[in-house]
Amino acid sequence: MSSLSCGIVGLPNVGKSTIFCALTNAAVESANYPFTTIEPNVAVVDVPDIRLDKLATLLSSKKKIFTTLKFVDIAGLVKGASKGEGLGNKFLGNIREVDSIVHVLRCFKGDTTHVMETIDPIRDLEIINLELAISDIQILEKKVLKLEKGKRSGDKKAIKEFEIVKELIESINNNVPISLSNYLDPEEKKIVKELNLISTKPTIYILNFGNESIDSEEIVKLKSEIEKRNESFVEIYGLLENEIKDLDENDKKLFLEEYNVKVAGLSQLIEKSYFILNLITYYTAGPEESRAWSIENNTKAPSAAGKIHTDFEKGFIRAEIIEFNDFVDSGSEEESKNNGLMRSEGKEYLVKDGDIIHFRYNV
Prior knowledge:
Blueprint: E1 4-9, H1 16-24, E2 41-46, H2 50-59, E3 63-65, E4 68-73, H3 88-95, E5 100-106, H4 121-152, H5 156-173, H6 186-195, E6 203-208, H7 216-228, E7 232-236, H8 238-243, H9 249-258, H10 265-276, E8 279-284, E9 289-296, H11 301-306, H12 310-314, E10 316-323, H13 324-330, H14 333-338, E11 343-345, E12 355-361
Parallel strand pairs: 1-4, 1-5, 3-9, 5-6, 6-7
Antiparallel strand pairs: 2-4, 8-9, 10-11, 10-12
Helix pairs in contact: 4-5
């Protein structure tokens, strides 16, 4: 199963690569000039999971496999990217391939060159969002031209698609957020999904404080602007977290506490990513292997089984389920059964966060 991916974006020299290193422990080039990152850097990180740790210890599992999150550090975007400025089309192509966007905003002082010469995170936010919106509008307008012929001939599918595309253009022009969850009709959802618009990708803003943040009044304004958009943010001292990334967890914690940081950047970002992507975790557990699996909330049991192997979904018979707390309290699958805490569920069962599942199938 491929990892869910987060594309790290922002203007050049706002600290994207530093944040990427801090989050992933990956060494990438970082320098005081634009376009240091040309090809996207990629790193896959394990998602820390206390429940999985507990299961693996309880069962003395030979292997413990975390679910993962992929971070893609994408080249810095500049004003005019939608018209090919900077790395324009290359950047926009890379960003269309990710599941969610992590937008880094420079909220720190210092000598690092800023392409706009002054530090203004709200302006930076608006520049990038405008370029992304223009890029989507260009795709949609080309789509409209293609659909007009089918619409004129009375093709029902083309008519429906045409109406959706026009509605999307209007939403983007009016700065109205677009979400796939707005489309309950499976056919409509499929049409929107296939357009692969950047505007449909959920966004988390990283307020990068470096080692020293800008004035608190500016930060308050920025947070207010993000909240008006109904979007999420996390606050990270990127330079500090990058400098301490090789320390053990206890020393890291002590350093962060000096800056009044209670939760490290990676943990904050994972929590927000799971929330905006509407993800939950279920488990398979035993002496050979304990493993975490991430799926979208409200996924039916056969689809969840398909995350493990397509045969599990095709030949699905039933799911044998024990809730996490019941499993831990009982100490084993056998004791959970003896205590009447295992239940069988069929094809319509919606998997819940923390379910420990054994799938029965026949192919």
